[in-house]
Amino acid sequence: MAADGGNDGHAPLITAQDVSVRRAGKTLLEHVNIEVAPDEIVTLIGPNGAGKTTLIRVLLGIMLPDAGTVHRRAGLRIGYVPQRFEADPVLPLTVARFLTLGSERPAVGALDRILDETGIAALRGAPLHALSGGELQRAVLARALLRAPELLILDEPVQGVDFSGQLDLYDLVGRLKRDYGCGVLMVSHDLHVVMRATDRVVCINRHLCCAGQPEAVSRHPEYVSLFGPRAGELAVYTHEHDHAHDLAGHVVPADDADPAHMHLHEKSTRDA
Amino acid sequence: MPESFVLRALVGGIGIALVTGPLGCFVVWRRMAYFGSSIAHGALLGVALGLLFGIGLTPAVLAVSVVLAVLLVVLQRQRLLATDTLLGILAHAALAFGLIALALMEGVRVDLMAYLFGDVLSIGWIDIAWIYGGGVLALAALAYVWTPLLAATLNEELARAEGLPVGRARIVLMLLIALVVAIAMKIVGVLLIVSLLIIPAAAARGFARTPEAMAVLAAGVGVLAVLGGIAASMAWDWPAGPAIVAAATVLFLVSLVMGGARRAAEKG
Asked: What's the pTM?
């Protein structure tokens, strides 16, 4: 029962076509396309204010696009790890209860297995609000996994997690993808995701900038350590050009651009 | 027969406490104390309209409370003003118009104090029927939306992404608060009613490890407060509504001390 009713196993799990979103007179997304296939890790990258979370909200069905379509495979189960999750001490809740809250009866042993896999088995009876940032992030991930997702969506999964914790979390996501065979869509403005654990990168800055495979050079360990501390400020990706940016950030045609070159975005040039 | 009015007060008060405990947990979790206060202030307009049109006060108060809750939802669609501002406008406008209407009504003698501070000892069996009928309805509705409401309280974005009926659950909660304000007004009055929602829930927090335990404990604290308050009212001739709130406050303080002692014991 991995695939629903006769669906092609390799058809995309979710597809957004030509999606545009405007709110309060501001264009948040314009003509954006994205798709995630089963057994694929896609990273959505872009500077702050690029509309990454907006696109996720559209994919999840929380927000309706003003134009364009979103198609989910019939009955698609999505596990979602939101960008911000805070456990309010006023609400008494154990970790185990948090995981099972609102889900249909999970398979026997699933809760124990997932607590083990995410490394929080010792915390199952702990109050949710007593968890550290990294532990809480794992608990939210475990909650998503308990729903046996076919697509896992993680919005900036490493916020508030220290550097070694980030690497652990990416390794975990890669392992989970293998074990569960689910598609993964991760949002980041962080270089390391692109380099360490992704099959495909989609870069947006309100419009679709580019999409493609992360380049081998960016996986070099020295490169990782060089850009590590500044990961939140720079987004590096490689891509096939369909356009370039002029100094003001406007899109210009780029027929003669070098298709393999590396392209740097300063976070704030467009948004200031 | 002094016993029978005391009995009615106890039965009515306990009925209210059993509902305000669990419902109050959501008021505390979702920081809706001001919403509760606003609905309660607006209830006075319901009293005025009820007298003006000669309909029962409880249905009139219920109607005005529901209208205020719906108006708030509509007004929240504009994004320039914050919810507490909107609530402040709705609450005080309803209160002001209610007071004006009461003052202008000729030939109607209104005991304003009874509505502001409650008159638990004048509860009749019809009031008790309202309390238990409305109370059972409120608890059943709360149980029905419990899981989506809890998930939405935890994280609304996550609950919506998981396809839970968040919007419906939130509207049900607002209507339940309106319902409880309407049926509880006679017990403690519009000025004190929110205390029955938040003080027992607050007292229960330190002793609960699950949301359900907190709801049950809050109901228990509320019942104790009603018993203590009415006993104090009988013994020392205190006004009953304020005496119930005072008893609840004492229980809250006791819970703080006990919680502190327990944490100290766990550490040591």
From this structure: 0.82
Quick: pLDDT tens for B92-127: 999 999 889 888 887 767 777 888 888 888 888 988
**How are beta strands A67-72 and A14-23 bridged, if at all?**
antiparallel
**Separation of alpha carbons B222 and B216, rounded Å:** 10
Residue A256 is predicted with a pLDDT of: 41
- The answer to whether ipTM exceeds 0.90 is no
One-letter amino acid of B219: A
Q: Could B162 and A62 be called an inter-chain contact, meaning their C-beta atoms sit closer than 8 Å?
A: no
Nearest CA-CA partner of A62 in A47, A83, A93: A83
Q: How confident is the model at residue A257 (pLDDT cuts 50, 70, 90)?
A: very low
Alpha helices in chain B (DSSP H): 2-29, 33-53, 57-75, 83-104, 112-117, 125-154, 156-161, 166-188, 193-205, 211-236, 240-267
Q: CATH 3.40.50.300: which residues of chain A?
A: 14-77+149-266
User: Does the distance separating the beta carbons of A147 and B210 come in below 8 Å?
Assistant: no
Convert the pLDDT of each residue in B211-261 to its tens digit: 999 999 999 999 999 999 999 999 999 988 899 999 999 999 999 999 888
Nearest-Cα residue of chain A relative to residue B148:
A102
CATH of the structural domain B2-267, one choice from 1.10.20.140, 3.40.1350.10, 2.120.10.10, 1.10.3470.10: 1.10.3470.10
A136 contacts in chain B (CB < 8 Å): none
Q: B25 to chain A: nearest residue by CA?
A: A91
Option in A78, A91, A140 nearest B211 (CB): A91
Maximum CA extent, chain B: 68
Phi/psi for B117 (5° steps) reads -120, 0
Among candidates A82, A87, A97 on the partner chain, residue whose Cβ is nearest the Cβ of B210: A97
B147 contacts in A (CB within 8 Å)? 101-102
A153-185 per-residue burial string, b: 16 or more CB within 10 A, e: under 16? bbbbbbeebeeebbbbbbebbeebbeebebbbb
Dihedrals phi, psi of A108, to nearest 5 degrees = -60, 130
CATH 3.40.50.10490 fits A14-77+149-266, yes or no: no
